[in-house]
Amino acid sequence: MYMFRSLILWAIVLNMVLGILGGVFGLIGAIVAFFIGSLGTAFGATGASDVTGLGASAFLASIVGIVGAVYVTKNPKIGGIILIISAIWLLISISLFGLLGAALLGIAGVIALIRN
Q1: The model's pTM
Q2: Could you tell me if residue 96 is inside a domain?
Q3: Structural domain includes residue 1
Q4: Nearest to 23, CA basis, from 91, 95, 114, 104
Q5: Three-state SS at 74
Q6: CA proximity to 61, closest of 95, 36, 35, 37
Q7: Span 38-96, pLDDT tens digits
Q8: How far apart are CA 65 and CA 54, in angstroms?
Q9: Is residue 4 domain-resident?
Q10: What is the span of the domain harbouring residue 105?
Q11: Is residue 3 part of a domain?
């Protein structure tokens, strides 16, 4: 019985760590997208405002992912769904810049759903 409780505790900690790391890497990707969009605007590139807008979307997706990672401790099913939605949202927003963050958020979401 103690071994089973210990595994559940490790799964909760793993979900939180992966989710928070995914959110942080997503925030870094969003900042890079903001920087590239601002640089493009400064040089008059077309579509630079789109990149800035997608960076803002990725920023929100990362914040939602961090909230989902914390919410996994209360309700693993809802928290896992939030993490997976955040991963997909981040990947759609800034694709390659958010790949690592989306992967970590997605893995945390799947682990949360399997654990439930």
Answers
A1: 0.90
A2: yes
A3: no
A4: 104
A5: coil
A6: 95
A7: 999 899 888 888 999 999 999 999 999 999 999 999 999 999 999 999 999 999 999 88
A8: 16
A9: no
A10: 12-115
A11: no
